[in-house]
Design a protein that fits this description.
By secondary structure, the protein is an all-alpha fold. It has 2 domains: 32-220 and 277-484, MFS general substrate transporter like domains (Growth Hormone, Chain: A); 221-276. Helices cover 74% and strands 1% of the residues. The protein has 19 helices and 2 strands. The chain has a two-stranded antiparallel ribbon with strand order 1-2. A hairpin with a 2-residue loop joins strand 1 and strand 2 (449-450). It is globular, with a radius of gyration of 21 Å. It starts with 35 loop residues before the first helix and ends in a 12-residue tail after the last helix.
């Protein structure tokens, strides 16, 4: 299907073209546009909560479902895997056929997944339902693209900063949300609540979000979508299952080898295609490649803050932990969500004054500082909470800025696809973090729980990734300002 390119809305200038007085201006926004950011930000938090809710439930799921621990682990793996695969595909479809349209499709599929989780305890259906919920990975990049198309330039940066940070905010909120409902009610109730929220978000989006007129032409690259799916599955499945299957097993090594071949074949096909799923030439630009690399690294560094600390807080006092309940451990992480809400806006202000490079460097320093505090063995609980907050501030600063770098550098007609790739790389970083942390903590188990040294090592690995975020950020241009957009 070929779609002719309509007159673009007033928007941020691209790196390749400057705004002139002759450019057409956006038509007046409808009354409902004032609800645009609240709806999209809430949707982003909702999507991140969906990714996280299974984490505190996971230890109890074998008893709830009668399945083994390996099968139960797919309740998280399926969501991450589908999210990684679907995000760039939905991004491209949104650029071609309508951002609101694909956003609504994602909301409906996510909500159906929640309903299915609420009515079954059969592990196969639950894994399928969690896979449906993974489609929500497309919400944040599509939402960022809608904000870029619909809001005046003066409001875009702060709006995108908030939208991007909803991933971290939702992750922090998802843990106590799930823990509280699961502790005081049946776990099925959790998914009924999520389904009700999904229905509310879908209704609000249908009523108050208008369809963007910025579209790309060409045909959808179905071959490229299949190729990317095969390559990502071959890469992410062994990463998530390596600790269970054995890192040196034939299955893991074979899938890693096949992923290299499939990515090479897919890249060749994309470069020869007139309408590629992902424009690799755009992605290879320094102004796009560096934010993508930073997203991969910070996705790893960010996830360790919640993942490792949740296990540390619940570990028995007789070992390295603090002996907290699921709910108590989750409540300890509430300050991280508050930190991210505040510092997403601080990040936008810092970028406006000093540029994106300074903001990302400051975020990387906070991540390193937070993980350095985490790595101190035998610390008091207040220091754990402080370390959580410092690392969360770093995440908010980085996440608030990365999408704006993509917005400035990528063509308007490829905005959702480019942001989809950025979120895909964040997800890959998150998946890698989960696998690495699981391997480190499993290798350090003594007497049924991980040792203090294994927790410190896991935090140390995340600190190294934060240092790499700092190093990559040094290569970013230092002269951009949001005022010049």
């Amino acid at each position: 299907m070929t779609i002719s390119l309509p007159r673009p809305l007033s928007s941020l200038p691209r790196a390749s073209s400057a705004r002139t007085a002759a450019e057409p201006q956006s038509p007046p926004l409808p009354v409902g546009s004032r609800f645009l950011l609240p709806i999209l930000a809430f949707a982003g938090v909702f999507q991140a909560v969906l990714q996280t809710v299974m984490v505190p439930l996971l230890p109890s799921m074998p008893a709830f479902t009668g399945a083994g621990t390996t099968s139960v682990s797919w309740l998280i793996t399926a969501t991450l895997l589908v999210g990684a695969v679907v995000t760039p595909i939905f991004g491209r479809l949104a650029d071609m056929y309508g951002k609101k349209r694909m956003l609504m499709v994602a909301f409906v599929i996510m909500t159906l997944g929640a309903v299915l989780c609420a009515v079954t305890s059969e592990i196969g259906l639950l894994i399928f339902a969690r896979g449906l919920q993974g489609v929500g990975g497309a919400v944040i990049p599509i939402g960022i693209s809608i904000l870029r198309d619909e809001l005046p330039p003066a409001k875009v940066h702060r709006a995108i900063a908030m939208m991007s940070s909803t991933l971290g905010i939702g992750t922090a909120l998802g843990l106590p949300f799930a823990a509280a409902i699961a502790e005081y009610s049946h776990w099925h109730v959790l998914f009924w609540v999520i389904a009700a929220i999904g229905l509310a978000v879908t209704t609000a989006a249908a009523l108050f979000i208008r369809e963007s007129t910025v579209r790309s032409g060409g045909r959808f690259d179905g071959v490229g979508a299949v190729g990317l799916t095969a390559a990502l599955v071959s890469l992410l499945v062994p990463i998530t299952q390596g600790s269970s299957w054995g890192w040196s097993s034939l299955a893991v090594l074979g899938m890693f080898a096949s992923s290299v071949f499939l990515f090479a074949l897919w890249g060749y096909q994309q470069l020869r295609n007139r309408n590629p799923l992902i424009d690799l030439r755009v992605s290879a630009r320094r102004s796009v490649l560096l934010p993508h690399g930073t997203a991969l690294l910070v996705g790893f560094a960010f996830y360790g803050n919640a993942l490792i600390t949740t296990q540390l807080l619940q570990a028995p006092r007789s070992g390295a932990g603090y002996g907290l309940t699921i709910l108590q451990a989750a409540v300890c992480q509430l300050p991280t969500s508050l930190s991210m809400i505040v510092f997403a806006q601080v990040g936008a202000s810092v970028t406006a004054r000093f540029g994106s490079k300074v903001t990302i460097l400051a975020g990387a320093v906070c991540l390193v500082a937070g993980y350095s505090l985490h790595a101190v063995p035998g610390k008091e609980l207040w220091l754990v909470i402080t370390a959580l907050g410092v690392a969360a501030i770093g995440t908010a600063l980085v996440y608030s800025t990365l999408p704006m770098l993509i917005v400035r550098a990528a063509p308007a007609t490829q905005m959702a696809a480019a942001n989809g790739v950025n979120v895909l790389l964040r997800t890959m970083g998150t998946t890698m973090c989960s696998a690495v942390v699981a391997s480190i903590l499993a290798a350090g188990v003594v007497g049924g729980s991980a040792t203090s040294g294994s927790f410190s090592l896991a935090y140390g690995v995340c600190a190294v990734l934060a240092v790499l975020v700092f190093a990559v950020s040094l290569a970013l241009p230092g002269h951009d300002r949001s005022q010049k957009m």
